[in-house]
Amino acid sequence: MAKPMREIHGLGVSDLNDALLTSTEPLLLRGLASSWPMVQAARSSESEADAYLRSFYRGATVGAMLGPPEANGRFFYNDDANGFNFYPVHAKLNNVLDEIAAKRDMAPAPTVYVGSTTVDTCLPGFREHNDLALGARDPLVSIWIGNRTRIAAHYDVPDNIAVVAAGRRRFTLFPPDQLQNLYIGPLDFTPAGQAISLVDFHQPDFERFPKFATALEHAQVAEMEAGDAIFIPSMWWHHVEGLATLNVLVNYWWRQSPDYMDTPTNALMMAFLTLRDLPPEQRKAWQEIFRHYIFEADQQTAAHIPEQARHVLAPLDDEGARMLRAQILKKMNR
């Protein structure tokens, strides 16, 4: 039911303009990183891709997740949802690559996955030959390495470009307004930091999750080969599958907000503490306050207050953010 994602062809690593990088819709960028030596090695063979990665490795330890064959690559909760169906380890990357290679011909195979590891720390020098030009943006650049894996649908606060450097990937994306149809699990007990959909995309249980059928009507899917990239706007839900026996992804995260701004997730968690369990009429009153001061704020919101007296209602800057954070911490620690 998912529709193909909009595709853009013919772009190179230096052709990413501001219009594209501020898109509010996902984009499949076919062949964006075709010039990367990593991609060229991967298109030759998995063995050459493996060897190319190892050529930059200098012994750093990485975090990895190991899952049993019966999980079929899906990193998820255990049956009681009080733990997970995998276990984390710290290992040398060369040992992880050895493990992936050793299990290449097994079906189903135990799942091996290195997630969100900073490229410059793990593979120094890699980005000198394999990188994207993102202008003045200073992204966090991470690498993800594994065999056949399934990462449950989740969102990220930053904007994101993800490059398939080796193997094949399938991304299934949903707009932010599909939250209620994705059946999200716990917010504060998660497999890897972000809340995830509880729906198994390979075997959706429509009796337990009937509204997921509606989510699929809004889904966009991208089938990707080595050299392809995907732009994922902030807050879009995305389910990610590694389809080959060796998959390597390099992604770039950045925010369109100033560095002094905190993550909105902290505001959500504070709202659980301060707002959710208020009586309905009080919640309604606070909903109006948030609408007025936050979600529909404009130049008229504080126009009746002398400019020098607006304090937190004035435009925020680095100094103002530090002062506000200190006030909040003082109140929290009372």
UniProtKB/TrEMBL annotation:
Q: Which SMART domains match?
A: JmjC (SM00558)
Cross-referenced Gene3D superfamilies: Cupin
Every JmjC domain range: 112-269
InterPro entries per the UniProt record, alphabetical: Cupin_8, JmjC_dom
Looking up Pfam families in the UniProt record yields: Cupin_8
- The entry's protein name is Cupin-like domain-containing protein
